[in-house]
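Sequence only, no structure available. Ideas?
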Amino acid sequence: MTSLAGDVRLCVLLAYFTGDKRAAKARGAISKRIRGHGDSILDEIIVTVDPKRRLHLHYPRQGIAGALTAALTWGVFGLITGGVQGLGVWAILGAICGGLFSYYSLSRLSKDQRKSIGQHLPAGSSALTAWIQGSDPQRILAAAAPSAAVASVAAIGSDLSGQVVQTADSPDGNGPAGSGARQADTLAATQLSMILVRFAGEHAARQALAAAGPAKGSTAKGGTAKGGPPGVPQVELVIEADEHGKRRVIDPTMGPAAVAKADIVGWGGFGLVYGLIVGFAGNGGVLGAAERGLVTGIAWGAFGIVAGALFGLWSSRSVSARRLKGIGPLVPPGSSMTLGWAAGSAPAAAVDGWLASGSQRLLVRFAAGPHGLVLEVPG
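Reply:
I predicted one. Tokens follow.
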């Protein structure tokens, strides 16, 4: 692989396996080898395709955080409502529910995207995707090569340049040769595209997203909601750096504000039903039950705001500003960046809309190649 124009700060690993449980089994050994070389894993996702070609996403790092966060918040709630006994019961219940939800239910892809990708991959297969703070893509590739059927690593430089190395494609182990026919095949086989866009200005990314308007699927916070219009990139993260280099990470769909807002409805509704049941059971009559249900619903809804905010802060966000310290040159002082996802190769999304207002852009494609799922960076 020829050297990148900018120094490598971030590597994206995609290891593909011919077995729906192999990625999960190999993850520990691969992660250990990566860390053994001094690299830091920022986030990991395990992808499985079941016998019916349904795509499932698992988030091992967020599962632990989700269990601990829910155990704490639910435990406090149990202590307030039921004393020490309530603390134990609700903490255990919260750990189980929070861990399972974070591991299995959190998803950055829409239902339609998961369905489409699953239909184009072999049944009974799996993959491991990892975002790694590291400067040597060949070393990261070597960590995955002994276990995977095919592995590829996209090396991203501080100037948002990118190149791919992979274990099986050409005799020298490098990425595709880039012929016209091969590029056309890659476009046709692309299942998903990761888009990085850098803007000049601390708040320029959010301003560009806000200018796109609701018709583009943007939210009030400047993100793109899941399930928006087809072809519109879904924004996962907005990263901002002030003039002193201090970073801030905003997650429009899984951050504290978004999760807290969603939990108001869930906790408030559950509290309302619980209060009605207790009110009727206590022979309080219709008015008494209604009053008890309303008060309980409001109280639980308020607690849901706190619980949701903490869950969004500690668990459901894919990465925090502190963990991005090592890749600071990707977002230099006085700039901002978005990380988004688009279905397929998204050629229109790569040049139109808010993406066009960015100063630099990098597209990383997840493509179904002859050896399995691999990464591609278009020239």
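The longest strand covers residues 190-200.
Hope that gets you unstuck.
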